[in-house]
Hints:
By secondary structure, the protein is α/β, with parallel strands linked by helices. It has helices at residues 27-37, 77-86, 96-103, 118-130, 133-138, 162-175, 194-203, 216-225, and strands at residues 2-7, 13-19, 47-52, 64-69, 116-117, 142-147, 153-159, 185-188, 207-210, 228-234, 237-242, 247-248, 257-259.
Amino acid sequence: MEIRLYYGNDRPKHMSLSITMRTPGNDFELTAGFLFTEGIIRSRDELQRISYCVDVPAEQQYNTVNAYLAPDVAFDPSKLQRHFYTTSSCGVCGKGSLEVLRVQGCPVIRQEGPVFSDDLVRSLPGKLRQAQAIFSKTGGLHAAGLFDPEGNLLAAREDIGRHNAVDKLIGVQFLAGRTPLSNYLLQVSGRASFELMQKALVAGIPVLSAVGAPSSLAVDLAQEFGITLLGFVSEKGFNVYAGEKRIVFSRSSQDTTIKAT
Length: 261
């Protein structure tokens, strides 16, 4: 899917912002989530509208999405290109990516807020799996879900790309005016990359839980910006890489949960 961004007053300019391989469905959520988590827009009123592009061959009409910024939103394409370079694919970004987040003014997540029991954390991969209707049929999609401290699922999204699944999930909340998501835990399939941590940070999500390992840069981000980062989460236990204070441990779980350093 191609995302085209329209910006400026009177005679708007436009550019091809991103091309991503995605699972069709929730395309407007994906677009809004991408714009928000990449720092192009910060609030719902900065996004005027989203629509499919009809000025393309018929077979591509639902593979091209137009996003229109509000006329008064300042936008500098040159800065955007440098930003995407520093936060591109997994493992390519370096320590400079943390500096980008500092320059953007991403706030440290407040330490007050929700806490999650270790028993609840261990149950979340299974709960998310139950919400993966397409995965049940194909076995080929990633998923992301938002859970409250009682284990209730606010929403879940699936996509062949794990970044897309998170953007869809955050995008639907952004469009509904529910961000920041400061009372929820983000559960993801796969590993915890720097990019997923960045998206959680921008959305104000205090806890990210992954079934796989985190990258070292993801751990650095979590520690610097106050996010609780959990890895290798399963019904048997999990590792805590940052933000242990948001997890309440029972005595019976101490031997199955590792507090990583």
